[in-house]
Write a structure and sequence with these properties.
Elements: H1 3-18, H2 21-27, H3 34-43, H4 57-69, H5 76-88, E1 98-100, E2 103-109, E3 112-121, E4 128-133, E5 137-143, E6 148-150, E7 160-167, E8 170-175, H6 180-212, E9 214-215, E10 218-219, H7 224-248, H8 256-282, H9 293-305, H10 310-323, H11 326-334
Parallel strand pairs: 1-4
Antiparallel strand pairs: 2-3, 3-7, 4-5, 5-8, 6-7, 9-10
Helix pairs in contact: 1-3, 1-4, 4-5, 4-6, 6-7, 6-8, 6-9, 7-8, 8-9, 8-10, 10-11
Length: 336
């Protein structure tokens, strides 16, 4: 068994042991699961894509798929990408004490800067916020204690805070191998990975419920209409997973952006279809707060909106497809 698989198996056990319904319910009221975050940090998972662990971005995205299956309510995706960026900038990673944000506005004169970032995951609960600016990219860290943090949340109850800073930040490095746009694309792929995992769990919950629940003296799974719906779900889950895997497999290649665009579009479409069918299969039970289904379907819809919905990425694909002219369109399609 490879070291990466051992790490993923460890993550599966950690998430399964800690991410029960009570923890997810508490997290959605603003209670950050610090004990879970401590266990994750001690396991080294947030450093998976850094030289310290010896993993890769591919491993990190595989980890996020596992996290999505358990609706893990911590900024793991942000910590993974932030630590990877800091590794590129030759500065020490921060394990689980950091999250990642995209700057809405940035201005500065001399060493002092004014920065505003919106929808920063769990900014209120970590020590530092990482973001990037410029070309070549400069990696900057803000101490949360020096920031004004306005709490917010997405439709899944996950913390998405506004962060404002005025002062002298920690400029911890730079890299000529990435751009600000690359960071956006990596975060879009992180949402694909998380959604792929959540889609798998929705299918699992729906199949289990259809096998257990009886109507008119027989299991729901024996009704042809339910079988058809579950088959549609399975196709959507498989297509989303394959699109995500294809994009992950293109990390570092020239076609990476196109593959991320395809994946975010396809996974977003699957999220809408699967969430709808999952609640139909569960019936009234699936709409209650007492059932776990909503923890995954609401996250699907929330993550679908983050880092570009389907329309955004489809438009990017369309622009790239026509950029080379009519003679290059077919090669663009079949080459990917």
């Amino acid at each position: 068994m490879s070291e990466t698989q051992l790490m993923l198996d460890t993550a599966e056990r950690i998430f399964a042991d800690h991410c029960d319904k009570a923890l997810l319910d508490a997290a959605e009221t603003g209670a950050f699961p610090r004990e879970l975050w401590k266990v994750i940090a001690e396991s080294g998972l947030p450093l998976l894509a850094t030289p310290e662990i010896g993993g890769s971005l591919t491993d990190a995205f595989r980890l996020l798929r596992v996290a999505g299956r358990h609706a893990v309510p911590v900024p793991l995706a942000e910590a993974l990408i932030a630590n990877h960026l800091m590794g590129l900038g030759n500065c020490a990673p921060r394990a689980s004490t950091v999250t990642l944000g995209i700057a809405d506005s940035y201005s500065g004169e001399g060493a002092e800067v004014s920065v505003s970032l919106s929808s920063v995951p769990w900014a209120r609960s970590v020590d530092q916020v990482c973001y990037v600016i410029g070309d070549p990219v400069e990696i900057i860290l803000l101490d949360v204690a020096d920031c004004d943090v306005t709490p917010g949340a997405n439709i899944a109850g996950e913390a998405r805070d506004r962060v404002s800073f005025l002062g002298v930040p920690d400029r911890c490095g730079s890299s000529e191998t990435i751009t600000v746009e690359t960071v956006f694309e990596l975060m879009a792929l992180s949402r694909c990975a998380l959604m792929s995992g959540a889609l798998e769990r929705c299918l699992e919950l729906s199949c289990d419920y259809a096998m257990e629940r009886k109507q008119f003296g027989r299991e729901l799974a024996k009704f042809q209409a339910i079988q058809h719906q579950l088959a549609v779900m399975a196709c959507e889950v498989a297509a989303a997973g394959r699109a995500t895997d294809a994009a992950i497999g293109c990390l570092g290649e020239s076609r990476f952006v196109a593959m991320v665009a395809s994946a975010k579009s396809r996974v977003g479409e699957a999220a809408g279809v699967v969430a709808e069918i999952a609640h139909q299969v569960h019936g009234a039970m699936g709409y209650t707060h007492e059932h776990r289904l909503h923890h995954f379907t609401r996250r699907l819809l929330a993550w679908r909106d983050e880092y570009g919905r389907e329309t955004y990425w489809q438009q990017r694909l369309g622009r790239d497809a026509i950029a080379g002219g009519a003679d290059a369109t077919w090669a663009f399609i079949v080459g990917r």
